[in-house]
Structure prediction request, 205 residues.
Amino acid sequence: MSTPNAFTQTVHLQGKHAELVPLNASHHDDLVEAVKDGELWRHWYTFIPTPEKMADEIARRLNLHKEGSLLPFTVMVNGKAVGMTTYMHIDAANLRVEIGSTWYRKSVQRSPVNTECKRLLLAHAFEHLRCNAVEFRTHFFNQQSRRAIERLGAKLDGVLRNHQINHHPDAAGALRDTCVYSILNTEWPSVKAHLDYQLSRSREA
Prediction:
């Protein structure tokens, strides 16, 4: 049985295409460069920090880690930070966690990076933290994110309607419908085989 501290214990997850390392303030400059690739903060249906707010976002995630509610990672490719992801909404008592607050620079989108990062995070959650379920949440209108989550093998649990108030300047005050997906521990062996197959194909390409 996992302990509550296990869910927030920093860990380094290594893959062939990318690695996940504990978020650190030293990643700031690379992350600023990454978020400029595609001007990612302009997407109204999600929250991605502007270059000017990157230091604040790093500090926010690190503070939440100290409070025990989040485990933040930096996504590294060839030694450079290309994005961020987290374990969030940690529910150690019920062995549940959400993978979210994820973004990648445009140049690595539609590459094996996201698939491998999710494979690493899911394996750690199910095989080391012994999770019963792993959640993914995204905006109803974030079709790119929804397709990516569904390609992992996650199933739609439902839609939380009028779940949050949007604070993005281009949609301030609009209400967000949140799609909730999950993968169960009993589904993990099949999902794992599916992700390994996808990654093997990408290495052959």
